[in-house]
Each structure stands twice: as structure tokens, then as C-alpha cells.
Specification:
heterodimer, A: mainly beta, Immunoglobulin-like, seven-stranded mixed sheet, four-stranded antiparallel sheet, 11 strands, about 0% helix, B: mainly beta, about 45% strand
Amino acid sequence: QQPVQSPQAVILREGEDAVINCSSSKALYSVHWYRQKHGEAPVFLMILLKGGEQKGHEKISASFNEKKQQSSLYLTASQLSYSGTYFCGTEEEGSTLGRLYFGRGTQLTVWP
Amino acid sequence: GAGVSQTPSNKVTEKGKYVELRCDPISGHTALYWYRQSLGQGPEFLIYFQGTGAADDSGLPNDRFFAVRPEGSVSTLKIQRTERGDSAVYLCASSLTPGLARGEQFFGPGTRLTVL
């Protein structure tokens, strides 16, 4: 089941903060976050596991509400390099371990 | 170390032709995934290999699509009788064994397939 991401697009000035949300209708094992720049492969940012464990990027944080099957990615003091499309991928309970369902993405643009 | 590699980077073919797309995963990664990404969309799951076997092929759109990983390393995605709707970027990713090391998936640069 494809998760729903919001907003679809964000425009920021360098140094501003942003929050990207991901919501699923299914119970989740984990939520994965990736960033993709135009014409490039998605790059791993963070995993949030059921039970609270997190692994990921130093300057990016995220939360995972297991009861609501929602995750949020927090980008603070944004830099020009943060520009790109952010995807969440969800790993569902009852589905094959490792199989990810990706949202449609949130396009983030950071201006100087 | 070397990342996931995919060849060719671009493939242009005519409707009805057969194509093969290759993925070389990170050494030691037992899990390999194929995704398809259309413009403005997120990656869409196609198939997942654990070792040599397809653990989940439920994402393959129809029987024109087939994938193999005979030695548990390199994988080939095969598309028969290509259609214009098959045009997309085909991404491959690899990871350590899910469940034992619930880690990230490392993506390759993709193969852009254009069916004329």
C-alpha cells in the first residue's frame, strides 16, 4: 500500500527548517527515508524501526509514531545541498521483510 | 568500495523487442531488489531476491517481465515484447539480509529504458 507524503513540494531559504510527513494505512515494521537528486539514484538518509531504534544522517532527524503509522522527517537549518526529492519507503507488517512501498515524493527546493 | 552498478545506463529499443538490464550489487549483499520509477513517481517495487531465489515477485506487472540471479550476485531483468508503457528508469538496490540487519537499501544509478 503506497504511503501518502505531504506536502508535495516545499520551497525554503537557506537556514530555514522543513518537515516532511509520511502516512500509511498499514501497520509498519519500519520507515525508510531517501533523497533523490534529479537524474541520480535515491540516497539513504534514515531508517526508523518499530520499537524506537533509528539509524541515519547526523543533521537530519525523524520520528515514527507506530500507533498512527506516521513518520516525519525534520530538516533543520537547511543547506543548498538539501534540495531534491524526498521519498519515504514503508516496510509493512505481514508483507515480505525488506519490501518497501514508496510514496510519490516531496520536492524540496532550497534557495540562497 | 564499489557501489551498485547497472548496465546499460540508457537503452532505446523498439516496441516488441526484447531487452535485458543488468545489476551488479554490492559485494556481500544477499538481498537484491528491482524497482521501476516513472517520471514524478516514487520507485515501484518489482521483485526481491534473497540469495538466488525470488523471495517476492508480486510486483512484476505481467509475464513479459522476468528476472534471474543464478549465482546469488549479479541479476538480470528481462523484458519481452516491450511496450511503450515499459519506458521508465529501472533501479536496482541491494542490502544486507533483512530481518538480520534491517539496513538501508543501496541504489544503483539506474537504466533509463525508452521504448519507441
